[in-house]
Write a structure and sequence with these properties.
By secondary structure, the protein is mostly beta strands. It has strands at residues 24-29, 34-40, 44-49, 56-63, 69-76, 91-93, 96-105, 108-111, 119-122, 125-128, 136-140.
């Protein structure tokens, strides 16, 4: 059963200065610029069904010091018909192929569809992103700003 993310009110909108102790992962509607969901900041994953193989893919991310998103791995059962299942660049872990990465993601924008079962997983929270179908979504962690003294 999926745990639903709690939606938090964020005063001042997505561009407001954040207290460094209250960093969040935010899901924004790119077209409207509105905050759709907010989760406690921590490593997170995006999960979706590949349109060709129909297998699930999981991309793992961490947050850098200033809120930048860094993709650290991608996990999948098979990368497609006719492709070798051994070789450099990936490893097998728990029955899945894992590609280790260290890739900065300047903007993490995606469009969801019910058929692809898009999910954002952060700790024990799973957020069904398909509740906003065909909506361009941005996942981000706004840089925290220290309050002026």
């Amino acid at each position: 059963m999926l745990a639903l993310a709690t939606l938090f009110n964020v005063t001042g909108g997505p561009s407001a200065a954040r207290d460094c102790s209250a960093r969040m992962i935010e899901v924004l509607d790119v077209r409207e610029g509105t905050l759709l969901a907010s989760l406690p900041a921590q490593p997170f994953s995006l999960l979706w069904r590949n349109s060709v193989t129909l297998g699930m893919v999981q991309a793992d991310y961490i947050l850098g010091l200033h809120g930048q998103i860094i993709q650290v791995a991608e996990r999948f059962a098979a990368h497609g018909p006719g492709m070798a299942h051994d070789g450099a660049g990936w490893r097998i872990e728990g029955g899945q192929m894992v590609v280790d990465l260290n890739r900065d993601i300047p903007r993490l924008i995606l469009r969801t569809a019910t058929a692809y079962e898009n999910r954002l997983i952060a700790g024990d929270i799973t957020l069904d992103l398909t509740q906003w179908p065909a909506t361009p979504l941005e996942i981000l962690s706004p840089d925290c700003k220290e309050s002026p003294q």
